[in-house]
TrEMBL record:
<keyword id="KW-0328">Glycosyltransferase</keyword>
<dbReference type="Pfam" id="PF00982">
    <property type="entry name" value="Glyco_transf_20"/>
</dbReference>
<dbReference type="InterPro" id="IPR012766">
    <property type="entry name" value="Trehalose_OtsA"/>
</dbReference>
<dbReference type="InterPro" id="IPR001830">
    <property type="entry name" value="Glyco_trans_20"/>
</dbReference>
<comment type="pathway">
    <text>Glycan biosynthesis; trehalose biosynthesis.</text>
</comment>
<protein>
    <recommendedName>
        <fullName>Trehalose-6-phosphate synthase</fullName>
        <ecNumber>2.4.1.15</ecNumber>
    </recommendedName>
</protein>
<keyword id="KW-0808">Transferase</keyword>
<comment type="subunit">
    <text>Homotetramer.</text>
</comment>
<dbReference type="GO" id="GO:0005992">
    <property type="term" value="P:trehalose biosynthetic process"/>
</dbReference>
<comment type="similarity">
    <text>Belongs to the glycosyltransferase 20 family.</text>
</comment>
<dbReference type="GO" id="GO:0003825">
    <property type="term" value="F:alpha,alpha-trehalose-phosphate synthase (UDP-forming) activity"/>
</dbReference>
<comment type="function">
    <text>Probably involved in the osmoprotection via the biosynthesis of trehalose. Catalyzes the transfer of glucose from UDP-alpha-D-glucose (UDP-Glc) to D-glucose 6-phosphate (Glc-6-P) to form trehalose-6-phosphate. Acts with retention of the anomeric configuration of the UDP-sugar donor.</text>
</comment>
Length: 469
């Protein structure tokens, strides 16, 4: 059996039972636990001077972590710069937020080449290499230049924008040529796959051979043949279900329940990121209190939002905006014994979160654009099936493709989201149970194991020998 080598920007060395904030880390660890292999990437440390010359290795069972510290300049240009100030906003359809300059683009290419130099000596000929996310698009091409012919797959955790947006990036063709160095390119949704295929059709001489109802496509471009396919990421449904059964009785969940003194609870849990639609969400909650004043003093909104990417100016700006909004809305509606919004800039362990989800009558997940959004799935899996809460979900989260039984909303439509909250808070038990049962069927059928297995299975079959049709 081939070894799996996972490459991701961030390697989260995790002790048993500890959880990192970030869907990627959670999903990868679950994938590698089963197969064993190497997890290679940045350690998360930034050092003065040059990036670390040789990777540090840590063995945990059959899994080897190989990590590199990044020098300050590399971190600034590759990570804060091109990845998070150019590709992240571009891939989330936010052209107004992209910064474009040659220095950070060069830094991005340089760090990808440097990572490839460091991984190459650790590889065996029959390894399967699975590269994750927008930080590492050129990585496979760099390995190919070094003569690596192993099977290589890439999975994009963010959305993939339509070509009309992607072409705002100077040298966009180079980036897509690099993407075509992989044998398999995975996306969360058919919309993302379509964006990629449309780019190949309109911006290259390549061809696209669609298979199924936009579930996959064979791409012939830049002298290569590859498969592009939809693999919607998911959660460990069974584990979360059983965790939530007892987590509702944990000390923190008890404290939360007592603090509510019979009031209902709406919950939001997100990294503090402008893609998550948090200002619009706060405004929608305000709208609920304004349009349906019967909820005043009857409902609390708990928003958990640990800060991320704090070196990037847009993240400082959104944090300030949210603090101001929470203060203003609380000042407007609070009673001496009730605070409408409980806004927390910190993260919690999975068990505590599971308990909070279970207590919450409404899960409010309203990104303006999101690759998948695992919080939506986690919220549903943590409900009590005899008395489940209601998921209110943005149509622009990848999760909406699979979770049509949620209350699907347009996050830009503040009044519409306010109305959906009202509907969720007043939904009869029968309807709540039906919707929850349907969502659970989806989450049981497609959990993190089936996601991993279907991806690895598809990669195992590379390079593909497609019949010409
Ligand atoms: P993220 O943008 O980080 O992931 P998401 O999919 O919601 O978004 O994953 C977040 C994960 O971190 C969840 O497992 C959640 O429980 C956890 N988390 C969030 N806030 C937390 C907190 N305060 N405390 C503890 N844990 C917290 C990116 C993409 C998504 C895609 C995932 C996986 O942006 O669209 O779904 O990768 O591909």
């Amino acid at each position: 059996m081939s070894r799996l080598v996972v490459v991701s920007n961030r390697v989260a060395l995790m002790e048993e039972g500890k959880q990192a904030a970030g869907g990627l880390a959670v999903a990868i660890l679950a994938a590698l636990k089963k197969t064993g292999g190497i997890w290679f990437g940045w350690s998360g440390n930034v050092v003065d001077g040059e990036s670390q010359a040789e990777p540090s290795r840590t063995d945990v069972g059959r899994l080897t972590y190989a990590t590199l510290d990044l020098g300050r300049r590399d971190h600034e240009e590759y990570y804060n710069g091109f990845a998070n100030q150019t590709l992240w906003p571009l891939f989330h359809y936010r052209l107004g937020l992209i910064s474009v300059n040659r220095r950070t683009r060069e830094g991005y290419e340089r760090v990808n080449a440097y990572f490839a130099d460091r991984l190459e000596p650790l590889l065996r000929p029959d390894d399967m290499i699975w590269v994750h996310d927008y930080h590492l698009i050129p990585f496979g091409d760099e390995l190919r230049r070094r003569g690596c012919s192993q099977r290589m797959g890439f999975f994009l955790h963010t959305p993939f924008p339509p070509p009309e947006l992607l072409t705002a990036l100077p040298n966009h063709r180079d980036l897509i040529r690099e993407l075509c160095a992989y044998d398999l390119v995975g996306f969360h949704t058919a919309t993302d796959l379509r964006g990629f295929c449309d780019y190949i059709r309109t911006e290259t001489d390549g061809t696209v051979e669609q298979r199924g109802a936009y579930g996959s496509a064979v791409i012939r471009a830049f002298g290569r043949t590859l498969m592009a396919k939809v693999f919607p990421i998911s959660i460990d449904t069974e584990a979360l279900e059983s965790l939530a059964r007892t987590a509702g009785r944990s000390r923190q969940a008890e404290r939360l329940r007592e603090s509510l003194v019979g009031r209902r609870l709406i919950i939001g849990v997100d990294r503090l990121d402008y893609s998550k639609g948090l200002p619009q969400r706060f405004a929608a909650f305000e709208q609920l209190l304004e349009s349906y004043p019967e909820h005043c003093n009857r409902v609390s909104f708990l928003q958990i939002a640990p800060p991320s990417r704090e070196d990037v100016p847009e993240y400082i700006a959104i944090r300030r905006e949210l603090s101001e909004m929470a203060g203003r809305i609380n000042g407007r509606f609070a009673e001496f014994d009730w605070q409408p919004i409980r806004y927390l800039n910190r993260s919690f362990g999975q068990r505590v979160l599971a308990g909070f989800y279970r207590l919450a009558n409404v899960g409010l997940v309203t990104p303006l654009r999101d690759g998948m959004n695992l919080v939506a799935k986690e919220y549903v899996a943590c409900q009590d099936s005899d008395n489940p809460g209601v998921l209110v979900l943005s149509q622009f989260a990848g999760a909406a493709h699979e979770m049509g039984e949620a209350l699907i909303v347009n996050p830009f439509d503040i009044e519409g989201v306010g109305d959906a909250l009202q509907r969720a808070l007043t939904m009869p038990l029968g309807e709540r149970k039906e919707r929850h049962a349907a969502l659970m069927r989806t989450l049981r059928r497609n959990d993190i194991s089936s996601w991993r297995e279907s991806y690895v299975d598809a990669l195992t079959r590379a390079p593909y020998d497609f019949p010409v049709t």
